[in-house]
Design brief:
Layout (H helix, E strand, L loop, with lengths): L18 H16 L4 H10 L3 H107 L2 H15 L6 H67 L4 H25 L5 H12 L3 H19 L8 H25 L6 H25 L3 H19 L6 H9 L1 H21 L7 E2 L2 H7 L16 E2 L5 H20 L8 H27 L3 H28 L4 H6 L7 H23 L18 H20 L2 H24 L8 H20 L6 H8 L3 H11 L9 H7 L5 H11 L19 H16 L1
Antiparallel strand pairs: 1-2
Helix pairs in contact: 1-3, 3-4, 4-5, 4-7, 5-6, 5-7, 5-9, 5-11, 7-8, 8-10, 9-10, 9-11, 10-12, 11-13, 13-15, 13-16, 15-16, 15-17, 16-17, 16-19, 17-19, 19-21, 20-22, 21-23, 21-24, 22-24, 26-27
Length: 794
């Protein structure tokens, strides 16, 4: 109950001494009555030192409020008295209600006592029921847990680690938190990590065993893949050779169709062989990967696998210093090839176990190591065959791995970079072989008793001059040097083509042709020149070498055709790019040596010319002795040379020999050996020349008309000289027209020397005394005129 707010009352007024004090008192009184802040008045009062006025007004205000307080208290006390009276009136009603409630409570307790006992029994039964239900559920839960535990143990014992882990995961996720048995729960919490660790160790051990085993499998796999590539290459080369033969021989198109069908069959066989080579077991790897995925260790397992494979690759890329690389190179490259065949399968079927970038990283690492090994090993090799063996195997490695998408350009570049070194080594080997073959030559015609010998030494190099097979035993026009050297050159071509082919370069005929030119023009030509200059000492040897050179000319045509065929170049294009005979130097040297030896032999017969009686008056009708000996020798020479020497070589050699005979006869007539000449001696020389002419006539079956005329020009000088000396008017020699027509091969000095020796002694100064009145012979007069004019010219 609230009292009404008192109204503001004006403060009491007091009389003051003056009006200012009165005003202050009024303000203080008003502030006190209105409840305003008295701070300013207090400070002012104490500041003036007159607090009595303020205290007085405060006391007055306090007395005025006491009366108000008294009135309020009186009003509240009356209300309290009224309330107490009301409570006293309710006290009796409360007592009656209390007794009524007590009676009702007694009755209720007496009635509810049996019910309460029944309720207690019910609550107790419900509690027992709940406990039994909880126990059943707990036992059921434990039974299920134990079933999973038992199943996990069975899977662990049988090696089914993934199923065991699934059981463990199910126990951990579905049963562990719901297990009420603290003992069982502690046991599960302890054993679950142990089981996972055990599974991880087991699969890691299996993976380690697989990593060891896969190295052996990779080596065998690489060898098988490279072997399949080699077999496929061999089939392709055989097919290509058959197709080229068919093209060159203009066979029917049906034949080509048969080849095409066979090629498809070969491709099928190659594919099936490669599929067989890809059969290898990746189960341990994939199981370990799957288990680690189940253990949420996928990234760690990927890293572990990649690191181990990288270490294996580095180990495989190392070359053992204990074994020569030539013996270990196949195992070395097969190991790497198998490694990347396995990685390709893992990339395609591993479900992300290894990425494309990681495989490319490993491949780049392997390529770098292989290139370094090849560079090092090639720099040490000094045998062309060793380098070729390694190159062929590397190219087969490239073919095998290119099928799986790996780039092998870097390896092919290393092989191409050592092309020049290989050919230099090959040229060096061929030089040694050719020197040995030439040094073993006996300069005898080769005897072949069987047809296979003819096929091996003649037909295989297309050295035959006729398609008709000869009768056996067959004596070839060449010696054993020719087929031996041909085999060396053919082997060089095949080795060169083998090195250049399958190396990334398609058009390599020009390279093969360049080194073939060097082999023929430098190695073989130099070896033949050395043989001619050091080992040829007789006519038969020189003749055999000259015959060999003619056969080499046909062999060189075969060499270039063979190189073009192996290089896949049409023969017409190879023929279009043909050059001159590369053995020209040795061919010319052989013919010059033969001519020189024959001239030496001729010089031996020409010594008999000293036995001729140059002043005799009798003419020998059968010719002089030296000429008869020469004719017999030349006829024997021709009959022998016809068997081995080609006609053009025989013609050149005989022409040189006849020219040499002519020069020796002219030299003898002009020399100091002959002091005087008789007309009978000149006629005897004419008979000798006729014998030579008769000899050349016998050569007409071997020569054309043009060649026969050229052969006679070999001794045209002696013929024109004899014709001049036997003519009726020798002075016609000084007539330019007649000289150009009939005596163009004569030198006027030689004519003057021989004419001076032919002059009649009676025409001398002392011979004119006895024949002053006689008439001079017209021919002698003409001869004197010729001598006089020739002296005037000189």
């Amino acid at each position: 109950m609230h009292s009404p707010k008192p109204r503001r009352k004006p403060g009491p007024t007091t009389a003051g001494a003056d009006s200012g004090e009165k005003l202050d008192e009024l303000l203080i009184s008003s502030a006190i009555c209105n409840g305003e802040d008295l701070g300013p008045f207090v400070r002012k009062t104490f500041g003036t030192g007159k607090p009595e006025t303020l205290l007085h007004h405060l006391k007055l205000f306090a007395r005025s409020k006491e009366s108000e307080i008294e009135e309020v208290c009186k009003a509240h006390y009356q209300d309290f008295i009224n309330a107490v009276d009301d409570l006293k009136s309710l006290l009796s009603d409360v007592e009656s209600l209390k007794s009524s409630l007590s009676d009702s409570n007694s009755k209720l307790q007496s009635i509810a006592a049996p019910l309460l006992s029944s309720l207690d029994s019910l609550v107790e039964a419900q509690t027992v029921s709940r406990n039994v239900d909880l126990a059943i559920r707990a036992v059921t839960h434990c039974v299920r847990v134990m079933e999973l535990v038992s199943r996990a143990n069975q899977h662990l014992q049988s090696g089914s680690f993934y199923l065991a882990l699934k059981c463990v995961d199910s126990i951990e996720s579905d049963f562990l938190e719901k297990t009420q048995s603290s003992t069982l729960k502690r046991m599960l919490e302890k054993r679950i990590p142990q089981i996972r660790g055990y599974v991880e160790r087991k699969v890691s051990k299996e993976l380690g065993d697989w990593l060891v085993e896969i190295r052996v499998v990779s080596r065998n796999l690489g060898q098988l893949a490279i072997g399949e590539a080699s077999a496929a290459r061999q089939r392709e080369e055989e097919l290509r050779m058959k197709q080229k033969e068919a093209e060159e021989q203009s066979r029917l198109s049906l034949r080509d169709c048969v080849y095409a069908l066979k090629e498809e069959e070969d491709d099928d066989e190659y594919e099936s062989g490669l599929e067989g080579s890809d059969s290898f077991d990746l189960t341990p790897l994939y199981r370990a990967y799957h288990i680690h995925q189940s253990l949420s260790l996928e990234d760690r397992f990927k890293r572990y696998y990649f690191d181990n494979r990288e270490l294996q690759l580095k180990s495989d890329s190392q070359v053992s210093s204990m074994t020569p690389f030539l013996e270990s190179h196949q195992t070395f490259f097969a190991q790497i090839a198998g490694f990347f065949i396995v990685e390709d399968r893992v990339l395609r079927t591993g479900g992300g176990l290894i990425s494309r970038q990681e495989v490319e990283f490993l491949w780049d690492l392997a390529v770098g190591n292989m290139c370094a090994v090849l560079e090092d090993q090639f720099s040490r090799m000094q045998t062309a065959n060793h380098l070729l063996l390694i190159k062929d195997y590397v190219s087969l490695l490239g073919v095998s791995l290119r099928r799986y998408g790996y780039t092998v350009d870097a390896l092919l570049e290393v092989l191409s970079k050592h092309r020049d070194k290989y050919h230099e080594l090959l040229l060096s080997d061929c030089r040694k072989q050719m020197i040995e073959a030439l040094s073993a030559d006996k300069f005898e015609q080769m005897l072949m008793k069987k047809e296979y010998e003819y096929s091996m030494n003649v037909l295989s190099f297309q050295l035959q001059t006729s398609d008709i097979a000869p009768a056996f035993p067959y004596i070839a026009p060449f010696s054993t040097t020719v087929p031996d050297c041909c085999r060396i050159v053919r082997s060089f071509i095949e080795d060169s083509v083998s090195f250049m082919s399958h190396g990334g370069q398609l058009d390599f005929y020009d390279v093969v042709k360049k080194y073939l030119d060097r082999l023929l023009g430098e190695v073989l030509d130099d070896a033949l020149l050395k043989l001619i200059s050091t080992s040829v000492h007789g006519v038969s040897q020189a003749m055999q070498v000259a015959a060999n050179m003619s056969v080499f000319e046909r062999a060189c045509d075969f060499f270039f055709r063979h190189a073009a065929q192996l290089s896949g170049v049409p023969l017409r294009m190879a023929e279009r790019g043909r050059r001159h005979f590369p053995l020209t130097k040795s061919q010319n040297a052989a013919e010059d040596t033969l001519s020189g030896l024959l001239k030496n032999k001729i010089d031996g017969f020409m010594t008999l010319i000293e036995n001729v009686n140059w002043t005799s008056d009798d003419v020998l009708q059968g010719g002089n002795e030296y000429m008869n000996e020469l004719i017999i020798y030349l006829e024997t020479l021709v009959s022998t040379a016809q068997q081995i020497l080609p006609a053009k070589v025989l013609k050149r050699v005989l022409r040189d020999v006849l020219a040499h005979i002519s020069e020796r006869i002219v030299g003898t007539l002009c020399g100091d050996v002959v002091k005087r000449l008789s007309m009978a001696a000149i006629k005897g020389v004419d008979v000798d020349i006729q014998l030579l002419e008769s000899f050349t006539e016998q050569l007409k079956p071997l020569l054309t008309d043009k060649e026969a005329k050229e052969m006679k020009t070999a001794f045209v000088e002696i013929r024109q000289l004899i014709n001049l000396l036997l003519s009726s008017h020798p002075e016609n020699f000084v007539n330019p027209v007649i000289r150009e027509r009939s005596y163009n091969a004569l030198d006027y000095r030689k004519v003057a020397a021989v004419s001076e020796k032919l002059r009649d002694p009676s025409d001398s100064i002392f011979g004119t005394f006895g024949t002053r009145g006689s008439r001079q012979n017209p021919k002698n007069k003409s001869l004197d005129t010729l001598i006089k004019r020739l002296k005037d010219v000189s």
